Amino acid sequence: MKRRELFQAMAATAVGVNLMGREVFDGSASPAPQKGATFTTRIRRLELRHTWTTTMSSSATRDTLHTQYDRDGITGYGEGAGIVRYQQSALGGQKALEALLPLIASADPYSYEKLLKDLDRRLPGQRAALAAVDLALLDWLGKRLGVPVYRLFGLDPKDTAVTNMSIGIDTPEITRQKVREAEDFPVLKVKVGLATDEATIDAVRSVTKKTLRVDANEGWTSKEEAARKINWLESQGVELIEQPLPAHLVEETRWIRSRVHIPIFADEACHSAEDIPKLREAFDGIVVKLDKSGGLIEAQRQIHVARALGMKVMLGCMVSSSCTVTAAAHLSPLVDYADLDGHLLIANDPYQGVTVQKGKLILTDAPGLGLRPVPDAKN
Ligand code: MG
After folding, report:
1. Distance between Cα 263 and ligand 1 center (Å)
2. How close is the Cα of 58 to the center of ligand 1, in Å?
């Protein structure tokens, strides 16, 4: 075959083989939907290393919704960790998705924007389940194209963020133990929001001088109490505070902001990109989570909206497996702070994905999310 004929033959098919021997789509044409694509869900029970307590809840296990998208011999994996505060659960998410599975399986995955918008309308109040779809689609797409997901977003893996390690609410003795276990991490995020806050910080400070971040999870009830505690926390080497007051108390948070020096971040107060402009006067930054946003695509939009308004961004996560945390790590080059340790809190992670070295999130050049299922994961 002459060189020109070879190029013509290559152009006639959208599918080729890259140097790694993986089948890749060259993007020159959208392939016709194929028969046999499936989208399935299952619930996995994640066991926590320590009972996890915040102002919201306390638990020894967490159920999360896992998805699998099989098409053209390629499997994409997704996960959604339902958020109790928004009345979400793994089972609720699974039921909400049930009737939509044929629609997802038969949709054109290359037109994921249209599909995800359609699903967002059909899944009111189920953004974590939507995230489980978004992640599986993008994992599949990256694998199909032969590139890591961070490449789909135009990001450099060398720029991944450094994550803090979270310390849930506990007795002073166990708090000290958790801080010692987190010795590899340069920054800690401590959960507060109860009457025991000062004892908690004292316990942390008895073991380490590291920079701290603090999350009150809406736990303080008055602006005066919050302002007093934040000023004390500032004296204890705390660099930022997350959601000091209940989410709806935006005006009261603005009052606090004028009386403290460290940045205040909105987590529970910020669900969607549309929320961000009205938070601008009260908060210095927002916390983006894939389970709140409904996946990577909407999370990226929130990050850009916050940036356009001059706000900082922290990328966080719920207690979840390496599936969600690795997906978030792919977006982390876009943010100022990372709180991506949910997979480190569990003992039976069903995936291997992002690794952490002295807090730095490390991604490989494997296509898609780069996840490796653990064959004997007990969940
Ligand atoms: Mg938070």
Report:
1. 14
2. 15
Domain housing 169: 155-373
Q: Residue 322 is part of a domain; what is its CATH number?
A: 3.20.20.120
Which of 352, 343, 365, 310 shows the shortest CA–CA distance to 160? Answer: 365
The Å distance, Cα 216 to ligand 1 centre, comes to: 7
Q: With beta carbons less than 8 A apart as the criterion, state whether 300 and 313 touch.
A: no
For the whole model, what pTM was predicted? 0.89
Gap from CA of 83 to ligand 1 centroid (Å)? 12
265 C-alpha to center of ligand 1: Å? 9
> How far, in Å, is the centroid of ligand 1 from the Cα of 243?
7
146 and 162 in a single domain? The answer is no
Give residue 338 CA to ligand 1 midpoint distance, Å: 12
**Contact call for residues 20 and 26 (beta carbons, < 8 A):** no
The string of pLDDT tens digits covering residues 44-97 is: 999 998 887 776 777 899 999 999 999 999 999 999 999 999 999 999 999 999
State in Å: Cα 107 to ligand 1 middle.
34
d(CA 47, CA 140): 27
Give the residue from 121, 151, 181 where a domain finishes.
151
Q: How far is the CA of 152 from the centre of ligand 1 (A)?
A: 28
